[in-house]
């Protein structure tokens, strides 16, 4: 069957809708079969809403002594929200209930404290997968292709351990719809890579699926129902599809060419800084960081971002693939 995404499909910013506004650092978005939407909240929790309804912010209960910076989020089998803590020093995976109660879930890997943690997903067997982008302090020291100290880890009944190491700023991971592969974005290596998913669970050798360039720094990724990989890029503020034949297609961009040329030159000189990435120039996408498919027909795409206060959405001509979060319910 030919891949059904039209090769000329492309959107502009005017094609986007606001799904929810008044948010704080909605870096990651989940879309559930119930119609519920959940986004990370930069002040320690999450935001929950349905289309057309006012968002509800769930933050840590009063008196919690620890500073949390939720980055990637997931829904657990228990119906609580899991988040990867991207703190300045310590990371970990935590669970937050609807009343703001926070519990630690994974705080160590191979017996050592988890560094600031980027992403989390719980698989169908209940194993918790997570990524650490870098062991460098501060993290901006790893915003170069020269540093490859990120990793993918898993926590299950056998303990918490690293499954793949030596990655170039590990970001989101996603299971392929056939559950044969784990795909990963290596943000500052500008790569989309994959590993064969083996029993254990374990991972096979790394394969590079796609090498990007310029100011395309891949952050979020998910699959459509036909094997295409949809990637969000911070820096360039693009959504790029890697078609099943390996070719790439830009389906959305709101480009500030002067800014992206500047970022590309800074990256080439191994000189990217926090200040460089703290703006999007004239782009209105505000550092687009994640994408998830939802809606009754799985053809509504929702976009998370690092620097904005809204989740935007658009209509896709093809459906997305269900994720491990899709068929779970928030409690």
Describe this structure in words.
It comes from Paraburkholderia caballeronis. InterPro entries: 6-blade_b-propeller_TolB-like, SGL, SMP-30/CGR1_Lactonase. This is Sugar lactone lactonase YvrE. Residues 70-247 form the SMP-30/Gluconolactonase/LRE-like region domain. The chain has 2 helices and 26 strands. With 331 residues, it is mainly beta. The protein has a single domain (13-315), classed as Neuraminidase (6 Propeller). A 4-stranded antiparallel sheet has the order 1-26-25-24, with no helix packed on it. β20 (216-223) and β21 (229-235) form a beta hairpin. The longest helix is centred in the C-terminal third of the chain and has 12 residues, at 257-268. The radius of gyration is 18 Å and the shape is globular. The mean pLDDT is 96.
The stretches of 5 or more residues where confidence is low (pLDDT under 50) are none
The portion of residues assigned to helices is under 10%
Summed up, the domain count is 1
CATH class: Mainly Beta
InterPro entries: 6-blade_b-propeller_TolB-like (IPR011042), SGL (IPR013658), SMP-30/CGR1_Lactonase (IPR051262)
Domain SMP-30/Gluconolactonase/LRE-like region: 70-247
Protein name: Sugar lactone lactonase YvrE
Organism: Paraburkholderia caballeronis
SSE layout and pairing:
Elements: E1 17-21, E2 29-31, E3 36-41, E4 45-50, E5 56-58, E6 70-75, E7 81-85, E8 93-96, E9 102-106, E10 108-109, E11 112-113, E12 119-122, E13 128-132, E14 150-156, E15 159-167, E16 170-175, E17 181-186, E18 191-198, E19 202-211, E20 216-223, E21 229-235, E22 238-242, E23 248-253, H1 257-268, H2 274-277, E24 288-294, E25 300-305, E26 310-315
Antiparallel strand pairs: 1-26, 2-3, 3-4, 4-5, 6-7, 7-8, 8-9, 10-11, 12-13, 13-14, 14-15, 16-17, 17-18, 18-19, 20-21, 21-22, 22-23, 24-25, 25-26
Pfam family, one: SGL
InterPro entries: 6-blade_b-propeller_TolB-like (IPR011042), SGL (IPR013658), SMP-30/CGR1_Lactonase (IPR051262)
Protein name: Sugar lactone lactonase YvrE
């Amino acid at each position: 069957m030919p891949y059904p995404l039209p090769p000329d499909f492309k959107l502009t910013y005017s094609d986007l809708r606001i799904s929810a506004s008044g948010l704080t650092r909605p870096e990651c978005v989940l879309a559930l079969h119930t119609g519920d939407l959940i986004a990370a909240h930069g002040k320690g929790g999450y935001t929950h809403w349905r289309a057309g309804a006012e968002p509800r912010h769930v933050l840590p209960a009063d008196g919690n002594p620890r500073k949390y910076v939720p980055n990637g989020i997931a829904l657990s089998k228990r119906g609580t929200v899991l988040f990867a803590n991207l703190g300045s020093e310590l990371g970990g995976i935590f669970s937050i209930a609807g009343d703001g109660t926070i519990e630690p879930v994974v705080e160590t890997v191979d017996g050592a404290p988890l560094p600031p943690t980027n992403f989390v997903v719980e698989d169908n067997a209940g194993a918790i997968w997570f990524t650490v982008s870098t062991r460098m302090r501060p993290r901006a020291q790893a915003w170069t292709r020269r540093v490859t100290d990120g990793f993918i880890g898993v926590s299950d009944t056998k303990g918490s351990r690293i499954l793949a190491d030596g990655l170039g700023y590990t970001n989101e991971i996603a299971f392929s719809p056939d559950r044969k592969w784990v795909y990963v974005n290596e943000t500052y290596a500008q790569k989309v890579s994959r590993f064969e998913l083996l029993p254990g669970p374990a991972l096979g050798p790394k394969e590079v699926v796609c090498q990007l360039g310029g100011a395309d720094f891949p952050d979020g990724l998910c699959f459509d129902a036909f094997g295409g990989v949809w990637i969000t890029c911070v820096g360039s503020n693009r959504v790029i599809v890697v078609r099943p034949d390996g070719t790439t297609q830009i389906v959305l961009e709101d480009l500030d060419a002067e800014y992206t040329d500047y970022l590309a030159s800074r990256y080439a000189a191994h000189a990217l800084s926090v200040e460089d990435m703290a703006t999007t120039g004239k782009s209105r996408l505000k550092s687009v960081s994640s994408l998830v498919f939802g809606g009754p027909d799985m053809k509504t795409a929702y976009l998370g971002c690092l620097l904005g206060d809204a989740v935007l959405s658009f209509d896709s001509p093809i459906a997305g693939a269900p994720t491990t979060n899709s068929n779970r319910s928030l409690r």
